[in-house]
Amino acid sequence: MQNAPLQYCKIGDLKPFQKCVNTIFIILEKGEITKTKDGSVMQKAQVADETASISITLWDNIGDSLQPGDICRLRNGYCTPYKNYLSLYVGRAGSLTRIGEFTMLFVEQPNMSLIVFSDAELNPKNSQKVLPGQQQPMNAH
User: PANTHER family, alphabetically (predicted)?
Assistant: First the structure.
């Protein structure tokens, strides 16, 4: 049986809690390296494609060999809010591969990491679905 081709998404189409993210982007800039209390190393980077930009969190040595201008392919990553800001992650099951440099069209705006999402989008388990024709439930105080 032949494997189905990977479906790639654009950064501008990413949503909170999206899994199995496959996308191609260019690294715009890398932030400073931060050490956590447990000794792990974390680095943020700003990445973009032709639809939008977003912050990506790189753990341990994933970002060591990557530089601004590198074009990368993310396979099986995920997108989730951290402190209400959307961020892209490689994850344990994911991979990030450098596939080129400097020759990719991109935009810096909109920055998906700065978009304010609704409570329902950020807390899908706590939100109630409202069907067409129904009124939004009132919160009891």
Answer: OB FOLD NUCLEIC ACID BINDING PROTEIN-RELATED (PTHR13356), SOSS COMPLEX SUBUNIT B HOMOLOG (PTHR13356:SF0)
DSSP H or E segment with residue 122:
helix 119-122
Just give the CATH number of 11-114: 2.40.50.140
**Residue-wise pLDDT tens digits, 102-135:** 888 888 999 988 887 766 666 656 544 443 444 4
Residues in the chain: 141
73 residue type, one letter: R
Strands (E), 51-93: 53-59, 70-82, 85-89
Look up tokens 């995920």; give the residue. 78
Containing 42, the helix (H) or strand (E) segment is strand 41-48
Question: Which position has the token pair 């402190």?
Answer: 83
The Cβ-side half-sphere exposure at 49, using a 13 Å CA radius, reads 17
